[in-house]
Amino acid sequence: MGLVLRAIGTTLKFRSIFISDIHLGTRGCKAAFLLDFLKHAESEKLFLVGDIIDGWRLKKNWFWDQRHNDVVQKVLRKARKGTDVTYVPGNHDAFARDFLDHEFGQIKVARDLIYQDATGKRFLVVHGDEADGVMIYAKWLAVLGDAAYTTALALNNWLNSVRRKFGLPYWSLSKYLKHKVKNAVAFIAHYEEEISRLARERGADGVICGHIHHAEIREIDGITYMNDGDWVESCTALVEHFDGRWEILHWADVRGFAPDEILADDETDTAEPQIPLPLLVNRIPLEATHRAKECEYSSSPTPGTLKSMASSEL
Fold first, then answer.
1. Is residue 6, in this structure, part of any structural domain at all?
2. What is the pLDDT of residue 78?
3. pLDDT, position 217
4. Which residues contact 27 (CB under 8 A, 6 or more apart)?
5. pTM
6. Distance in angstroms (rounded) separating the CA atoms of residues 144 and 184
7. pLDDT band at 184 (very low <50, low <70, confident <90, very high)
8. So what's the pLDDT on residue 308?
């Protein structure tokens, strides 16, 4: 049975939208909610700020359902319809960093960039693993932490299925742990300070990032720090209005559902199943999955453009 969602009378329009940490290819990804957001929100520019595809998880265990395909197709369709889409890879999709300055389906790939908002302020846009000491000096520890986080998300889903049976509201175990465990709180604070310092060194007025799954807008020593959150727990996007105002949209709150609920099938798009992005070809073993098919590269002079995906409609 589908959910009764709060109606949105008109399409929400923004100057720019920033989303990150979608983690397509994992069971924790809230692809249906993201697809719902992309259906109701339009913008002149769309920035994918890293960890869009979870290469770490896909290499260990292939998971890619239809909704994950639909998200990719929706983004590609936005790009074809005129939205300026830029992809800034993160640590979980670091394989895409081998394709910097290329375009895939009219989506530009960049290591980082400077974004100027409507008021003239300049923001460094970067995923954020550059300011994560664990990623820089002990990647093996980050992989271990990722496994623990995945376990916490699975436990979180089980816990909330029990809570729903007793009529209790949604409660995020992983978010609770991040806010209550002293070391986690200290890590977030240190990360925010480090990424802000990086923005200052680049001569920017602020920074837009993701990575830590903690949406926030605040001032840090004269630098405007903005984190767009994630789409595995909080389902958040950072948006810039046409007058230069910034806002974090908590999509579950906007639409009136809990992040662990499942949207009705008619709330999602359908598309012909195909491999998500050419970046995964030769990067992730595909022999274990019968759902993915080889992508056919076109003879277009634009590097990396896919014939099979650039022409399909959602």
1. no
2. 97
3. 97
4. 63, 154
5. 0.71
6. 15
7. low
8. 34
Instruction: Please report, for the domain that includes residue 217, its CATH number.
Output: 3.60.21.10
Give the separation between CA 32 and CA 97, rounded to whole angstroms: 27
Q: How many distinct structural domains can be found in the chain? A: 1
Would 8 be classed as within a structural domain?
A: no
Ranges 3-7, 79-83, 109-113, 306-310: which has the least confidence: 306-310
- What is the average pLDDT across 298-305? 35
What's the order of all strands across the beta sheet hosting 41-48? 103-104, 107-109, 84-87, 41-48, 12-19, 236-240, 246-250
What is the extent of the structural domain holding 177? 13-310
Q: How many other CB atoms are found less than 10 A from the CB of residue 303?
A: 12
Most confident of 209-213, 258-262, 288-292, 298-302: 209-213
Do 77 and 115 form a contact (C-beta atoms < 8 A)?
A: no
